[in-house]
Amino acid sequence: MANKLSVAFPLFRGEGVYKETLLDVIKYIDATTPTETALKNYLLREYGGNSDYFVERGIGFLGSLRFIERNEEDNFQIGPAAKRYLQARGNVGAESDNTELEGGEIGADDILFNIFINRVENFYETLETINDEATTLEELIEEMDYSETNIRQRINWLKTMGAIEGKPSDIEITTQGKHFLELYGPS
């Protein structure tokens, strides 16, 4: 496997709507298999105010996570991670990604968390540190030895997945977060 990413790049509309943005982008790519120019124009039009550089970094991040990839014609198509995520969302339904599924099936947030722990360095460890000891942004920065930006990005993604809640001055792990630690922790 390639080296893990050092950043958990924010998506185009900002924190709180990362999953919605991810789903919108995946659906657009799946429906249109756009060229690079068409994808950039879509992202700039839909999520205006972002620079070309920010859009390019977002496309690169989604590619690194394997949500998108290029096909034989050099257009974008959804990648294996997007397919897994969409399949899990179909199992859960549009209402929620956090539904406890019967028969041990894995929900969409579980899939998203799994993708991140496999592709973004210290993503699992960030949640584990919140569970064990660090309950503020400052404590996480000190404990993890990451920049404030990198920690904030991880916090925002973890919130999006329902693993944590609260403000940077008072972060709490949720039942979902404890589920992730149990499901993906060392055996």
Explain what you see:
This protein has 187 residues and is mostly helical. Helix content is 56%, strand content 7%. The strands form two sheets. The protein has a two-stranded antiparallel sheet. A two-stranded antiparallel ribbon has the order 3-4. A hairpin with a 2-residue loop joins strand 3 (164-167) and strand 4. Helix 6 crosses helix 9. The protein is globular, with a radius of gyration of 17 Å.
Any descriptors?
187 residues; mainly alpha; two-stranded antiparallel sheet; 7% strand
What's the average pLDDT? 83
Number of strands: 4
Shape: globular
As laid out across the biggest beta sheet, the strand order is: 1-2
For the terminal residues, how far apart are their CA atoms? 21 Å
Element order, helices and strands? HHHEEHHHHHEEH
Structural class: mainly alpha
Summarize the structure.
The chain has about 190 residues and is mainly α. It is about 55% helix and about 5% strand. Strands 1-2 form a two-stranded antiparallel sheet.
Write the layout of secondary structure elements.
Elements: H1 18-32, H2 36-46, H3 52-64, E1 68-70, E2 76-78, H4 80-92, H5 108-119, H6 123-132, H7 137-144, H8 148-160, E3 164-167, E4 170-173, H9 175-184
Antiparallel strand pairs: 1-2, 3-4
Helix pairs in contact: 4-5, 6-9
